[in-house]
Amino acid sequence: AAQAGQGFSLQQPQDKVSVAVGETLTLRCTTSGTAEPGPVKWLKGWGSGYKTIYDQKMKDPFSRVTRAVNESNTDFTIHIRNAQPEDTGTYYCVKFVKADSGVDEVSHHGRGTEVSVYETALVPGMVAAAVVLCFLLLILLGLFVALCMYRRKRQGRVGSPCPARTGATGSFSSVPLRCCAGTPSTPSEVLDAESSHLPSQQSSKEENDIHYADLQPLPPAPWHGRSPGTAPTEYASLRTAAK
């Protein structure tokens, strides 16, 4: 690099800068001392692949890059408006001087500022997606639990035994009877045998009905016109639809 003026120095204090998309990126650079003729530029990258971001000699009113202090000879801080992901990279503040050949040569440059541009919409979007997913999982879990409880309750109703009623006291006994008339080797055969003593019109009922008869003598009472030696009786029928 060519020698600059005596006592000249260049400071680029920022090591890393991070901004969100759409915000303004600020890159700081200051100089001190006397410099030889030549512009100060901002370069993105170094070596053969660099790109000129700001040139002191060029004026572009439509550029996103502007000086923080216009026409200053010591403060070369710049602003980059509306930062985009493609602005990510390393930026260098560079002092050039005129060589004997007339070409600008590097005299001094800063250490470089690493710039990163992040998307602010990604974080809320990911959080919202996670919340929706958790909500859907909770709904599915609740439906699964409700379905299991419904099926268990339904199975309990179908498989529950039916209590049998005794003829002597009229109360229910603890003998389990399946409510399925006509099943072989079940207590329903006993009920069929008892129901055979009912009058003939009761036998025409549906097979799924359960009949019970209780024949007991009535207390003696005067009854005119009854044949002597005939004891009055009564019967009762209880019909329950089998499930």
UniProtKB/TrEMBL annotation:
Q: Which residues form the Ig-like domain?
A: 22-93
Q: Which Pfam families match?
A: V-set
Q: TM segments?
A: 126-150
* UniProt cross-references to InterPro entries, sorted A to Z: Ig-like_CS_Receptor, Ig-like_dom, Ig-like_dom_sf, Ig-like_fold, Ig_sub, Ig_V-set
User: What SMART domains has UniProt attached to this entry?
Assistant: IG (SM00409), IGv (SM00406)
Is Phosphoprotein among this UniProt entry's keywords? no
List keywords of the entry alphabetically.
Answer: Disulfide bond, Glycoprotein, Immunoglobulin domain, Membrane, Signal, Transmembrane, Transmembrane helix
Q: Where is this region: Disordered?
A: 186-243
Q: What is this protein called?
A: SHPS1 phosphatase
